[in-house]
Structure formats: structure tokens, C-alpha cells
Amino acid sequence: METRLIRFEEKKSNLGSLVAIQDPDAIPFAIQRVYYIYGVDSETYRRGFHAHKDLEQVLICVSGSVKVLVKTPNEEKVFHLDDPSIGLFVGKMLWREMFDFTKDAVLLVLASRKYDEKDYYRDYEIYEKAYMAQRRGK
Ligand code: T46
Question: Is residue 50 flagged as an active site residue?
């Protein structure tokens, strides 16, 4: 699966820590959009339930913690994001679900494209068929 953790350099001092993302190699795409998710007020809610045709993203939990399930019809992985100096790269055509948000969780997302609802697969069966067709085409 095209997913991996990226560690950002932290500038630490007795005043606290700072992470700057400016090195073009730090993120494997040009950033077109930034958004963040917060105030998920119960650890029982799950968000996501979709895959993207072309969008690539890096998810950074800058406060609190959240779990992210990334899956294809063939495999799945769960990442526990609880460190603002770690980003989770999620490539194209991967189903994702975010869950177990802590009350203070803020999930910052860097995205390779502008928002486009047509880029989403929000139905798992349709996604699964498209994924398998793409695999057969390779
Ligand atoms: C993803 C995960 C990690 C916009 O108007 N602009 C935007 O840039 C985004 C991301 C969303 N929206 C609207 C669309 C919906 O009406 O905001 C509403 C909530 O979006 P959604 O239900 O897609 O949120 P999540 O948390 O399920 O998914 C989001 C991203 O959509 C998705 O790309 O990978 O975060």
C-alpha cells in the first residue's frame, strides 16, 4: 500500500517545539490545500469512509491523538497518530477511516489537490470494483 510515516525535523528548545514544513522533499507532492478536523467530541465517532481517485495527502495529528485505518481490498493497516512531528502519507486509491479521536485532537491535512467531490469514492463496493479493475489493468 502506498502509505508511510514521515518524520519532520523538530526545533526543540526550553520554549517548546516547532516543526516547519518547507523543504520540498518533506512532502511527496506540491501542497494545493490545507484543512483540519477538530472538535470530534466523542471517541465513538468515525469519519472518512472513502477513497480518492487522484488525491494524495499527509495527515498530521497536531494535538491529541487519532487512529487512521488505511485499506485496500487486499490489506489494511491502522496507524495511531499522536505526535505532531509525524505525518502519515496516504496515496491514491486507498480507503480511509479516522476513529478514536481524543477530545483535544486536531488532525491537520496537507493535500495535493483542491477539493473536488468527483475525486471521492464514498461507496466501498464501487471503490473495490474500481481498485480491482485498476489492478487488472496494470
Ligand atoms: C480525507 C479525510 C482525512 C469541503 O468543503 N472542503 C474540503 O476541503 C473538505 C476536505 C471537505 N469539505 C466539505 C465536504 C463535506 O460537506 O466538508 C464536509 C466534511 O467532509 P468529509 O465528510 O469528506 O470529511 P471526512 O472527515 O470524512 O474526510 C476528510 C476529507 O474529505 C478526506 O479527503 O481524506 O478527511
Answer: yes
Nearest CA to ligand 1 atom 8: 115
Q: How far apart are CA 130 and CA 121, in angstroms?
A: 9
Name the residue of 62, 109, 121 to mutate for ligand 1: max ligand atoms within 8 A of Cβ.
109
Per-residue pLDDT tens digits for 117-137: 999 999 999 999 999 999 888
pLDDT averaged over every residue in the chain: 95
The distance of Cα 61 from the centroid of its chain, to the nearest Å, equals 9
User: In CATH, what number is assigned to the domain containing residue 81?
Assistant: 2.60.120.10
Q: How many domains are contained in the chain?
A: 1
Residue nearest to atom 1 of ligand 1 (CA): 48
Expressed in angstroms, the distance from the first to the final Cα of the chain is 15
Q: Which domain holds residue 122?
A: 3-137
Nearest to 89 by CA among 10, 138, 21, 18: 21
